Amino acid sequence: MAISRATGTFPPPRHAINRGILTEGIMGVVAGALGTGHATTSYSQNVVVIRLTQVASRSVMVLAGVMCMVFGIIGKLGAVMASVPDPVIGGVSIVTFGLLVSIGLSSLQTVNLSSTRNLSVLGTSLYVGLVTSEWLKLNKDSINTGYASLDQVLKLILGTQMFVAGLTSIILDNTVRGTKEERGMDDRSSVKTESGSQIDKHQSVYDLPGIPQLQRRIPLLRHIPFFQPYTPH
Length: 233
Prior knowledge:
The chain has helices at residues 2-7, 14-34, 45-53, 58-73, 75-82, 86-106, 116-138, 148-158, 161-175, 180-183, 211-217. The protein has 233 residues and is mainly alpha-helical. It is globular.
């Protein structure tokens, strides 16, 4: 949803969201099989990069992925990237994460922030996310289920501020009584994942190339949820 806002296109339809979740799950399995658990998931910093560069071409993203693989294979190129001074990386990080926070807050523009209900949900969510991680740092042995693996999973989840704050906000926003207008849901007809907005005529931006031809030849492919809906011609 954030990428669609940054690129000015309509929100992703259901099949595109399904495909993204599927791909991330597969890459998580591959990462676990290879013994690594990083750089295999979607990063919110990518939204900031698109906002800063104004470039959202898939070709550019594929080229960036190929370059990263080349840097990882060829040691000399990786050493060049590692030689970037820490102050430069720090400066880029300040701008990147600062803009990331701003983009996150901009999603609240349709919400009535003069409502006590919404302010309570927002403030409580942020506070719980910050406090929980700090509490775990000060009480490292507080979680003891008797299973070391489960303890590590719980510590990782509860120590992730964004996850705790996001989960808290989801629970509160769906349990505390409030009107659709108050929650900013009355102006979100263009965010429905079924079809997307009709403002953007290039709806094939989320479609996989070559799938319509395969769907015409193989009827079974018309019912797969992560492929675009079949449109007979």
